[in-house]
Amino acid sequence: MPSKTITFLGTGAADATKYYHSCFYIQNKDIGLLVDTGGGNGILSQLEKMNIPLESIRHLFVTHKHIDHLLGIFWILRLLGAKIAKNEAKDLTIYASQNVIKIIQDIAPTFLSEKVTKLFAGKIMFHPIDGETKITIGSWQLEPFNLQSTKEEQFGFRLQFEDGQNFVCLGDEPYKESLLVACKNADYLLHNAFCLERDSARFKPHDMHHSSVKDACDAATTTNAKNLILIHTEDRSTFSNRKKAYIEEATKYYSGNVLVPNDLETIVL
Ligand SMILES: [Zn+2]
User: Fold this and answer.
1) In angstroms, what CA-CA distances link 138 with 8, 161, 201?
2) How many angstroms does the Cα of residue 85 sit away from the middle of ligand 1?
3) How confident is the model at residue 121 (pLDDT cuts 50, 70, 90)?
């Protein structure tokens, strides 16, 4: 097993049906971080297909409250919570904004049994992120930052591994100049790429606060990223050849390495 991996459970945007919603699991030795949960119980089968046992998920980061990022958490809480209640799993820490935490805590009693919700005072912990405070997870330093979204409060993060490499996640928000300090010199920059630049007139990614492949490439060039990972895509024009088409366009605008993972693909970092 390689030491650092990122497993893409989903790579699609909200309305995609041929991909699961964008979410991924970063793993390094005995530490793992699930980032977002997708919009439904598909998260459970994606985890199962990748042999990631629910009880191995101890840290979960939610970028923002949109349906395609948040709703899968209730399925995780339902099943993992039951295991935690029976002492078949340890504890879970959820990192999210105060607003997202409130939504989870408000909705949970509607769907979940009391044996799960009563863990909210103990073994299921909520860690509010404010974009300024660093978080230590084992040997990792997690530095969440506010993506300054104009549509919905959203947090990305810079993750520093103990070997000195780092990974920067921009959620599904476009890079903006004010994020330069948080994003610069990333070993891996994860950026949304809703569609190809040549399909922009059809899909209008900017109207949805998303980006084209070219926009993501410009961000990677500006921030001096070594590797660019593109996810959160539409599935109507490029489903059959997304990897090839995206890489072809990206190499026109960015000289670093471009990765376009499929659902259920693992990348060694
Ligand atoms: Zn999204």
Assistant:
1) 22, 10, 45
2) 31
3) confident
Estimate to the nearest angstrom the gap between the alpha carbon of 236 and the chain centroid: 22
- pTM of the predicted structure, to 2 decimals: 0.97
Task: For residues 92-119, give the mean pLDDT.
Answer: 97
Under a CB-based contact definition with an 8 Å cutoff, are residues 125 and 91 in contact?
yes
Ligand 1 midpoint to CA 87 (Å): 34
pLDDT in tens, 169-189: 999 999 999 999 999 999 999
CB atoms within 10 A of CB 146: 18
Q: What share of the chain is helix, strand, coil (3-state, %, to 5)?
A: 35, 25, 40
With residue 227 as reference, give the H or E element that holds it: strand 227-231
In sequence order, what E strands does 43-200 have? 59-61, 92-96, 124-128, 135-137, 140-146, 155-160, 166-169, 188-192
- Give me 75's structure tokens: 């399925």
Kindly report the CATH class assigned to 4-268.
Answer: alpha beta
C-alpha–C-alpha distance, residues 233 and 40, integer Å: 18
Q: How far is the CA of 66 from the centre of ligand 1 (A)?
A: 7
Task: Enter the tokens of residue 269.
Answer: 């970092």
Q: How far is the CA of 173 from the centre of ligand 1 (A)?
A: 8
Q: Give the residue extent of every domain in the chain.
A: 4-268
CA gap 154, 173 in Å, rounded: 8
pLDDT tens digits along 210-240? 999 999 999 999 999 999 999 999 999 988 8
pLDDT at 1 over 80: no
Strands 265-268 and 4-10: antiparallel
